[in-house]
Amino acid sequence: MRGPLLSGPLGSAATLDRVCRLLHGHQPTVVLSALWLAEALAGSFPVLALVEEEKRSAALRAVRRASRSARGLLVVSAGEDVPLRRGGVGAILVENLMDVEDQAAAEDLLVGLLPALRPDGVVASLDATKHQETEARLAALFLAAALTGIVQVRPREGALLTIGSAPPQAVTAVRAARTLALPGEPRE
């Protein structure tokens, strides 16, 4: 299993193998925006890819390739706007979470994903970095989103996989209510 030619350490066989092993048993798996990653993982287990509308033609090609090779890949062209069933997802994988410029927006993204996770579900971020500061910022984001059992793995130099388990449902409900506070209202 390999990623695209220019995917670097994230698309290496070692990285993708480690991602598969860590996410195995956490199905269904949702991959946000990273079509190449969803297609690579679909060889190991069923994957739902949520992609932006502008990636529609690439998504159609990926689905055709997956159907020819009997891979379990479903692509929905709408990105994060697709509502996922509450408590129905085993794993959510985000590529390069650190590319989200605003720390608060990255935290809100993670918190917004929590209601979709099963009680034993996980959120994972696959980032291209060699810097310990980035590693610490990712861990802090996962902590701020109330994820538990946070683990960071470097399957290959330049690739960082951060995984956190779903918090208890009571915590998720409180976090969701806090995120939905009206604009101008202070967040608690």
Description:
With 188 residues, the chain is α/β, with parallel strands linked by helices. The mean pLDDT is 82. Strand 1 (29-32), helix 2 and strand 2 (47-51) form a beta-alpha-beta unit. The protein has helices at residues 13-23, 35-41, 56-68, 103-113, 132-144, 169-179; strands spanning 29-32, 47-51, 73-77, 89-95, 117-128, 148-156, 159-165.
What are the main properties of this structure?
6 helices, seven-stranded mixed beta sheet, 188 residues, alpha/beta
Topology:
Blueprint (H helix, E strand, L loop, with lengths): L12 H11 L5 E4 L2 H7 L5 E5 L4 H13 L4 E5 L11 E7 L7 H11 L3 E12 L3 H13 L3 E9 L2 E7 L3 H11 L9
Parallel strand pairs: 1-2, 1-4, 2-3, 4-5
Antiparallel strand pairs: 5-7, 6-7
Specify the structural class.
alpha/beta
Helix content: 25-40%
Based on DSSP secondary structure assignment, what is the total number of beta strands?
Answer: 7
* Sheet with most strands: 7 strands, mixed
Shape: globular
Low-confidence stretches: none
State the end-to-end distance.
45 Å
In round numbers, the mean pLDDT is 82
H/E element order: HEHEHEEHEHEEH
Note the total helix count: 6
Estimate the strand proportion.
25-35%
Side by side, the strands of the main sheet go 3-2-1-4-5-7-6
| Rg, Å, rounded | 16 Å
